[in-house]
Write a structure and sequence with these properties.
By secondary structure, this protein is mostly beta strands. Helix content is about 10%, strand content about 50%. The strands form 2 sheets. It has a 15-stranded mixed beta sheet that branches. Strands 8-9 form a two-stranded antiparallel sheet.
Length: about 240
């Protein structure tokens, strides 16, 4: 009986993460949606207080539908065939250059698969904190080869699976496949790489950096999905 209940709980958590991740990785802002980045100042049973990047203090409602993920530091060695990844990248000719990379847990394979615009993020490929428009691509890495860092870029978000990956020094060139399409993406040493894992509300502590995808209804802001940094790591998104 306990085993059955545990399996049902895992199925529920998987469904929650699949649903909220689709909302979370929606790349076009819609009425009532909000992306909140900042630092946790307080955690309650049903509420989270966050000081945002812009210095605002926001109170966020937590409910039974809120999903939680933790992010831990990873590296190029974990960008391997069959891994499902998300890449915030900039456009450089016929390829893209990664600004940030996230590695999804197996239970989130297929989350928001595709390519679309993201929002403005720090340009990690530059020495100064210049912000540029970005997008996210989620797909599979088919091929990685040696290349030199480009001098100019644009950005987007891609989600997909790694089909193949090769490495040249501290750079990887990836061919990412998603929804019948593919992209060539360079991952330079400047791109933070993190691994996501399922989390719980207890993972939230004052001082942690978080990314919150929320739904706004009048003065009420409710968290759909929260990614919390671990061991001083800030969620790159």
């Amino acid at each position: 009986m306990l085993g059955l209940l545990w399996n049902k709980k895992k199925e529920y958590l998987t469904l929650v993460l699949a649903t909220t991740s689709a909302i979370f990785f929606a790349t076009t802002a819609t009425a009532g949606s909000a992306r909140i980045r900042g630092t946790v100042t307080a955690v309650g049973t049903n509420a989270l207080a966050v000081r945002t990047e812009t210095g605002a203090n926001v109170s966020i409602v937590l409910d039974g539908a809120t999903g939680y993920l933790t992010s831990t530091r990873s590296d190029l060695n974990h960008l391997t065939p069959n891994s499902y990844i998300g890449v915030v990248s900039k456009d450089v000719g016929d390829r893209r250059v990664a600004l940030d990379v996230i590695i999804f847990p197996p239970s989130m394979r297929g989350a928001a698969e595709g390519f679309s615009t993201w929002d403005k993020r720090p340009d990690t490929t530059l020495s100064k904190g210049i912000r540029t428009a970005t997008g996210m691509t989620n797909g599979s890495v088919t091929t990685v080869a040696a290349s030199q860092s480009p001098s100019s870029v644009e950005s987007a978000m891609t989600n997909g699976s790694i089909a193949a990956a090769t490495r040249a020094g501290d750079t990887k060139q990836l061919t990412v496949t998603y929804a019948g399409a593919k992209q060539t993406i360079l991952v330079p040493p400047t791109a933070p790489i993190v691994m996501l894992e399922r989390g719980v509300i207890a993972d939230l502590k004052a001082g942690d950096a978080v990314f919150v995808n929320a739904v706004e209804d009048g003065s009420k802001t409710t968290a759909a999905l929260i990614i919390v940094g671990s061991n001083g790591i800030a969620p790159p998104l």
